UniProtKB/TrEMBL annotation:
Keywords: NADP, Oxidoreductase
Superkingdom in the source lineage: Bacteria
Organism from which the protein derives: Novosphingobium endophyticum
Protein name: Acyl-CoA reductase
Family matches, as Pfam families: LuxC
Amino acid sequence: MTDLTETTPAEDLVSAPFFLRGEVLHGTDVIQTSRDLGVTFATPRIPFDRAVPPRTEVPPLLNVPLAEIIDFLVETGQRMVAKDNDHMQECIERMCRTHILPRAVVEHTARHAAAYLDKRTLMAEVEQNFPDPRALDEWIPKQDYTGRKSFVRAFAPRLIHVLPGNSPGVAVKSVAQGSMVKAINLFKMSSADPFTMVAILRTMADIDPQHPIVKSMSAVYWRGGDDATERVLYRPQYFDKIVAWGGGDAINNVIKYLGPGFQLVSFDPKTSISMVGKEAFGDDETLDRVADLCSADVMTLNQEACVASRYQFVEGPQEQVDRFCERLHHHIARRAAESGDIRKLDPEMREAVEMMSMMDDEFGVWGRTDGKGLVVRSEEPVDFHPINKTANVVRVDSLDDAVKWINVATQTVGFYPIDRMADYRDRLAAGGAQRIVHLGEAGPSTIGNPHDAMYPLHRFVHWMAHEDGCAPSGN
């Protein structure tokens, strides 16, 4: 991060404005650098007095009925995909300058993200997270078995959201969830995407600049780990919780500020896998179909998403597993070509794979390190983190042997065949896995289901109890 100087012409910079509770703040005061591509972009300085509302202020959304909030979110989703929405169009143009994914993937993901703002989807999220959703709108009377009375409410929290840069969908989901729990929200945008959240909020402001949702939202950018900024914002006198997405560095930056009254809700780094049983080798048609399903999981968001499969545990002798690897590589390469993604592997991974290609007895390699799709077959998971259209097929004699590689960082397990899933789900959960799905269905999820082994909205709110009566004497 550096100050703008005369040697950096403003017209050459991508500008990333801020949004502060209904107002857009433009400026090129600070030069920032995107994490993945090293592209520079300019932002204003953060006006802390405008980004942090005082604790004495009742949250603007507190007494707005949930039904009204959802209606506004639905209207926002419709406006996001409207052809005349200049905010979203401009957002995509700018994001293509800073994002690692190709334009076609960015555009598709941005359009698809708005589908989350559907009334049925939003209501399902609330109903699954709260046994009694009325707690978001009112104080719910309670009485225990002793006769003692109280009222309980899911009170509007104050949240800082540390957003990832891999998908605009997280921005859409975060603004919806922050609205439904009636929070005061400060969104820290990612250097890979310092645009989507502001575009969403500007779309909302066009609908109604005075709406309490608009007045509850701010979006800014600072470099993660910037102590001068984070020691100001990450305080319990200003916020209740940090909702953090992202890699290990992003989570570690947050942890050091935690303390009494200031909590972390973490969507921390996860690794997803595939488990393929010997049934895949029934005939050539089945083998090709299963390999294609597996490639769909590998290539979810071009392998940038947590649900994207990194390791594929395949049950069978080496000769058959090698046949699977050949078909898997074919389908990964096809999907990569269709997306227009030609990113090459990073130098360290490229060197590791090239070394493996010379060790025929231990490894098999299909494809090259040119970013067009790659499969590495091994007897144990490789040491590097497979990414950028790279699959690591681990041959196992039995899927039972794959279970030992499950841990608390294992998010999604894509499984084939379907009729063996129930035999493994308890063992996968015991190992730490959080989700098991049909092979090929890692991307979509059942609406309202837990995310990363929790119900997020239930974690976001500030649960408040109002005790209002003593138990009868003698109890």
